[in-house]
Automatic annotation (TrEMBL):
Transmembrane segment boundaries: 31-51, 105-123, 135-153, 182-203, 229-251, 271-288, 300-319, 325-349
PANTHER family linked: UPF0658 GOLGI APPARATUS MEMBRANE PROTEIN C1952.10C-RELATED (PTHR34391)
Organism: Mucor plumbeus
GO cellular component: Golgi apparatus
Key words of the record: Membrane, Transmembrane, Transmembrane helix
Protein name (Swiss-Prot/TrEMBL): Uncharacterized protein
Length: 422
């Protein structure tokens, strides 16, 4: 039987084709996709209105010379807090208003990340990633509720410690932002309930798809799910770690940590290490993903070392920036928890190397010619043990055959596929 050469398609065409197929697979995938786009749009619009309102009040206070626009980390530039100076409250009010703006920006970035994570979960049909998206939606409700509390406290602080403006056209009104924040919490709560329902429905649908890819081997399914969890954690690291690293790098630069050599060497060295870790963060996560796909233990060991250093860096950040900013403390603690989880999962995943999972580690949008190269009947098919289940979704792979009698094939569409994790 002669093999026909399939003309390779461009990566973007393959990606769009598979994405369209996966999104339109069922009514639940369609509703989930529409809902996540709608959620992101509403969140960005409301947060845009909220941040504009906070910036307006902040600028009005500066124009009225009620507060000073000092650098964001200069909490107490003149040691007024240490001396119990009454003016210290004004410094804290200015700092708190700037923090509100930073929280709004973080919320918008988190919403965009949720959009990517949710759509990616549908395209990759990843149950673990779908659950992570739903949990993140609940976290967004918590963050939105924290914002409401923060705005209420800042409003009370301004009313108590800053005299009212002389200009009748200036009101320092927090109520507009507060109404939108309450609306955001309500909308996010409703969306979270809907996402939990859709997650349950898609869990059953995607669970069957995993069975079709991996087969009836319970241990292999467990290895597959563990690797999916690891890849999902890497994506969470890419967002939370990178955003926090960049934010604190800006903070340290504003505080002129680069000029502390010979004065406070510990802070200078910490600054250099933090900048290096920030630059290497995303490449390191991609490197770790490649190490798991290729089952390279040396890569995983190197990645473990970097993650331990990253975890220590976040602990130092938490100690160095300790204060009353609840949002920041929660974010850094979450980053530390992610570091610990990444280290533990890296060890667990590496223990599964050489146990037959490697053939299922194909890239999501692999070219058809490369797929056929891995089909049964080719030399590379030896990667798949003859007693493993070869299962596939429709139209992912060209038809292939095998002469080995003890290979088991489950194929509802007369096509073969070696499943993937990505």
């Amino acid at each position: 039987m002669t093999n026909e050469t399939i003309e390779p398609r461009h990566f973007l065409i393959r990606m769009m084709s598979l994405s369209k197929k996966r999104i339109q697979e069922s009514k639940y995938t369609k509703v989930f996709t529409i809902l996540i786009i709608l959620t992101t749009f509403i969140c960005i619009v409301l947060e845009g209105v909220i941040v504009n309102s906070h910036v307006k009040v902040y600028q009005e206070l500066i124009d009225n010379q009620s507060i000073q626009d000092v650098p964001s980390t200069s909490v107490d530039p003149d040691k007024k807090l240490a001396e119990n100076d009454p003016a210290a409250k004004i410094i804290l009010i200015a700092l708190g208003l700037r923090r509100l703006k930073n929280e709004n920006i973080f919320f918008i970035l988190f919403s965009l990340f949720q959009l990517v994570l949710g759509l990616d979960a549908i395209v990759r049909q990843s149950v673990i990633q779908l659950v992570a998206h739903t949990v993140n939606q609940i976290l967004l409700v918590v963050f939105a509720a924290i914002q409401v509390g923060g705005t209420i406290y800042k409003h009370l602080d301004v009313k108590q410690d800053i005299p009212p403006p002389e200009d009748p056209d200036v009101s320092w009104n927090f109520n507009f932002a507060l109404r939108n924040e309450i609306g955001l919490v309500s909308v996010m709560f409703i969306f979270s309930v809907l996402f939990m329902y859709l997650c349950y429905k898609l869990y059953k649908q995607f669970g069957w798809n995993i069975y079709k890819r991996i087969g009836a081997d319970i241990e292999q399914q467990s290895r597959f799910k563990l690797t999916q969890i690891f890849f999902m954690i890497l994506k969470l690291d890419a967002f939370f770690h990178f955003v926090l690293c960049v934010f604190y790098a800006v903070v340290m630069t504003q505080e002129k940590y680069y000029s502390l050599w010979g004065i406070t060497n510990r802070k200078f060295i910490g600054y250099v290490i933090h900048i290096v870790l920030t630059v290497l963060l995303i490449p390191g996560l991609l490197f770790a993903r490649h190490g798991v796909i290729t089952e390279n233990k040396r890569v995983i060991i190197f990645f473990l070392v970097t993650q331990i250093i990253m975890g220590l860096d976040f602990i130092l950040i938490l100690v160095d920036s300790a204060g009353s900013w609840v949002f920041w403390i929660l974010a850094v603690c979450l980053a530390i928890i992610l570091c610990i989880s990444t280290i533990v999962l890296s060890i667990l995943v590496s223990r599964n190397f050489g146990k037959g999972l490697k053939p299922y580690m194909q890239r999501l949008f692999i070219d058809e010619n490369d797929k056929s190269y891995n089909q049964p009947g080719t030399n590379n098919a030896a990667l798949l043990k003859t007693n493993e289940w070869m299962i596939d979704d429709e139209e992912d792979y060209p038809m292939g055959y095998t002469n080995k009698p003890n290979s088991v094939h489950v194929n509802s569409n007369n096509n073969n596929n070696t499943g993937y994790i990505a």
